[in-house]
Design a protein that fits this description.
Elements: H1 3-20, H2 30-41, E1 49-55, E2 58-65, E3 68-77, E4 80-87, E5 90-95, E6 98-100, H3 104-121, E7 132-142, E8 145-154, E9 166-172, E10 178-185, E11 191-203, E12 206-216, H4 226-231, E13 236-241, E14 244-250
Antiparallel strand pairs: 1-2, 1-14, 2-3, 3-4, 4-5, 5-6, 7-8, 8-9, 9-10, 10-11, 11-12, 12-13
Length: 255
């Protein structure tokens, strides 16, 4: 037998063995990791989905159709149901189906409030928005699981009023699920949050999760240190982020 062929065959065999044991790690880019996470959570189904859910007593609905989007919130008010719609054309508000003129000073606040809830409810889908900048900054182990650490920032153009906020996502190296995330924000004096995902469920092909929401009062804490503080129980549990009454309808089943 040819000695070179035999050595090459043995080398390839060892690579297969080591890979199966997890001793060889395939390196992906930040974009590839995020793409895999989105695909794992629902992929192209997001692009044609109508999603309903309840969060903290308010009803939400989103509709997406190949880039055209409509994000809605329904709130019971003293004069009836307040219906806010954020879409490609801006903000609309009605009360009991009657159009209401929103003061200029409130447009951004209302729009950001609606956007924020829908953004977190459909993660990781929003991580491929045009204004999102992604960077693989390392890896870490949390609760004996290995994760990619993806830093997310935003371009000023298209990044919204909070474009200076920073996010960090811990994406499981094998399952490509977003199991932890952290963010630093500047509004209302600023703050840092760390979220632990729990209660995963798949509804009509789209994955949803709830979160334990933690905080630290030290605003100088780097986001990539929060996983260590979490494991040492040095973060304070602030609240729970729970989605209820979830309903998903896919207008054109692509998968």
């Amino acid at each position: 037998m040819n000695r070179n062929f035999e050595n090459k065959h043995s080398f390839l065999f060892l690579i297969l063995i080591f890979s199966s044991l997890g001793w060889i790690s395939i390196q992906f880019s930040a974009q590839e990791i995020v793409d895999k996470a989105i695909q794992n959570a629902g992929g192209a189904r997001y692009d044609n989905a109508i999603i309903h859910f309840t969060f903290r007593g308010k009803r939400y609905r989103s509709k997406r159709d190949e880039g055209i989007y409509q994000l809605e919130r329904f709130v019971d008010g003293p004069k009836g149901v307040i219906h806010d719609i954020v879409s490609n054309v801006g903000l609309e508000r009605t009360i009991e189906n009657c159009p209401i003129q929103v003061e200029d000073s409130l447009v951004t606040k209302i729009s950001d409030g609606v956007n924020s809830v829908h953004y977190f409810a459909t993660l990781p889908y929003g991580l491929n928005a045009p204004a999102v900048k992604k960077e693989l900054i390392g890896e870490s182990t949390v609760n004996k699981n290995q994760y990619y650490k993806i830093k997310v920032t935003f371009d000023q153009e298209g990044g919204g009023t909070d474009f200076e906020d920073e996010f960090l996502y811990w994406i499981h190296k094998q399952n490509f699920t977003v199991d932890y995330l952290a963010y630093k924000y500047a509004v209302n004096g600023g703050g840092i949050r760390f979220r632990e995902a729990y209660n995963p469920r798949v509804i009509n092909g789209i994955r949803f999760i709830d979160y334990n929401n933690y905080k630290t009062d030290n605003l100088k804490t780097p986001l990539d240190n929060l996983d260590v503080l979490f494991e040492k129980s040095k973060l304070e549990l602030l609240s729970k982020i729970e989605l209820k009454n979830i309903y998903v309808y896919i207008e054109r089943d692509c998968c």
